[in-house]
Amino acid sequence: MITAVMERLKAKTSITDIQTAEDLEALSNGVMPRNRTVFVLPFDESAGDNAFVSGTFRQSVVVRFLVAFFLRRYDDAKGDGRVTIFELMRDEIEKALAGWQWDEHEELVSFVGSRAGSSPAKGTSIFVQTWQTTRTLERS
Fold first, then answer.
1. Are 8 and 102 in contact (CB under 8 A)?
2. For the chain, how are helix, strand and coil distributed in percent, rounded to 5?
3. What's the CA gap between 83 and 6, in Å, rounded?
4. Could you tell me which residues come within 8 angstroms of residue 54 by beta carbon, excluding any fewer than 6 positions away?
5. Crossing angle for the helix pair 2-12 and 80-97, nearest 10 degrees?
6. Whether pLDDT at 105 is above 80
7. Any idea where the domains of the chain sit in the sequence?
8. DSSP 8-state symbol, 77
């Protein structure tokens, strides 16, 4: 599903640097990505009950994933320019993902929330969005 999200963002946005990662903290503390780099990360999953009593197994899993993007402007001490770029990137990502169905049998992708942060590197801002959908575990 993470791969499908990345492909969707590549196809439906002007963002050219889209990568996957495992750990958000490592991104903000160690890796210094280029301006306008977007990362798609797994976040958490929670499963419902098995839909069948015996034999066949089917379980719906709520999946949350993160879309984190980095903005760099060293000539922008107050962050005014980064805010403008943030709004443009946020809008592109939201238009690409909100209401999209990554698999015809799963729920539509929906926005859960977001937060802003900063990186130890001066002039760098990090914005993280949380998104939600489902996937299904099945066994016959």
1. yes
2. 25, 40, 35
3. 23
4. none
5. 110
6. yes
7. 2-139
8. T
Dist CA 124 CA 74 (whole Å): 8
Length of the chain: 140
> pTM of the prediction?
0.85
Q: Are 112 and 64 in contact (CB under 8 A)?
A: yes
How does pLDDT run across 41-73, given as a tens digit for each residue?
999 999 988 767 777 888 889 999 999 988 876
Which CATH architecture does the domain made up of 2-139 adopt?
2-Layer Sandwich (3.30)
Instruction: Give yes or no for a contact between 126 and 68, defined as CB atoms under 8 angstroms apart.
Output: yes
pLDDT tens digits along 24-43: 777 666 666 777 889 999 99
Tokens of 81: 């320019």
